[in-house]
Amino acid sequence: MQRTDVDPLLEPNVERDPLVREMERAPGSTWGWVMGYGVLLILAALIVLLNPLVAGVATGLILGVILIVAGVAAIAAGWTSLSSRARWTEILLGALALLAGIFAVADPVAGALSLVIAIGLWLVISGGFQIAFALKARHDKGWRLLLGVLDVVLGLVLLFASPATGLAFLAIVVAISLTVRAVFLIQLALLLKRS
What we know:
Helix content is 81%, strand content 0%. By secondary structure, the chain is an all-alpha fold. The longest helix is centred in the C-terminal third of the chain and has 32 residues. 28% of the residues are buried.
């Protein structure tokens, strides 16, 4: 299957986006809602930057839920369909993700400051297992090795940063993500208003 449209995040020309074309065909004026959503995301990004602790708690809860879901999925995948492709690696990594997720969800206020350490430890341990199994693997060796090294490096960065610095780093990442999305939506709203 060949894709002919360019991803709007890679190509800022939003006229080519299929979502834009569909919204242009929608009845009524939709640009105001899109603009409002973009402005709301800008405000959320500012709140995240001004109060990293709140952002840390919220990020911790979201990340905890994601890790729990990812852990359960990795255990299920390892248990059922990966009999010859690193079955125990996926089960072990799933169990680690599940434990880290439960920790993040169980106590988000106290976990906000220790979240950085928990994520750092999880990344280092997970990355270490990925590297060890990648060196012995017959399948997907390059990808596992790359992901393992990346996890270890990011984990070490978080472990050697102070908790406050780590929370600020997480807040900056969340704020950047929200801002980029907001800029895209505001650009889209202006395009819809002109058409």
